[in-house]
Specification:
Order of helices and strands: HHHHEEEE
Number of strands: 4
Distance between the termini: 69 Å
Largest sheet: 4 strands, antiparallel
Radius of gyration: 22 Å
Mean pLDDT: 87
Number of helices: 4
Structural class: alpha+beta
CATH architecture of the largest domain: 2-Layer Sandwich
Low-confidence stretches: 133-145
Strand content: 15-25%
CATH topology of the largest domain: Beta-lactamase Inhibitory Protein, Chain:B, domain 1
């Protein structure tokens, strides 16, 4: 069971009850105003991330290696979309847990993310082994001539 569905509403009710005991109706009004402001901030962030994702192809990321370095367990899908500025290519069937999404870069490297209840569990980076130079990577220096 997702504990956030229980704890967050209980914390909000406890905060409103504290505001009532401490300040009366003005305290309740201030607590509700703060709650509405918090909801609006999250809604604005979500709209901004989704607006950025409309400009990129589905499942594309600038660098899969950099995405791999920035990921950490427990982040939500919206955070991953903010990092990639793209919707992930869905690999798992609709409505099945865990959800699996993939982001691929121009070199063919990709990061597959496994999410349960919208939170990142694990991810894997796959890089092609054909020996080609990736975009933005300098070629290996030549061996010095032997004297």
């Amino acid at each position: 069971m997702n504990w956030r569905r229980i704890v967050y509403p209980l914390a909000a009710l406890a905060f409103i009850a504290f505001a009532w005991n401490a300040f009366g109706w003005p305290g309740v009004a201030a607590a509700l105003t703060g709650g509405v402001m918090w909801i609006l901030l999250h809604f604005t962030r979500m709209v901004h991330v989704m607006k950025q994702a409309t400009d990129r192809p589905v499942g594309y990321v600038g660098s899969a290696v950099m995405l791999n370095a920035k990921l950490r367990p427990g982040v939500n899908l919206l955070h991953i979309m903010a990092l990639t500025k793209s919707l992930g290519e869905r690999l798992s069937p609709e409505g099945e847990q865990p959800e699996v999404y993939r982001w691929t870069d121009t070199s063919g490297s990709h990061v597959s993310c496994e999410l349960r209840n919208g939170r990142l569990l694990r991810w894997t980076l796959w890089r092609p082994e054909d020996g080609t130079v990736e975009a933005g990577e300098a070629p290996a220096p030549a061996a010095p001539p032997e004297s």
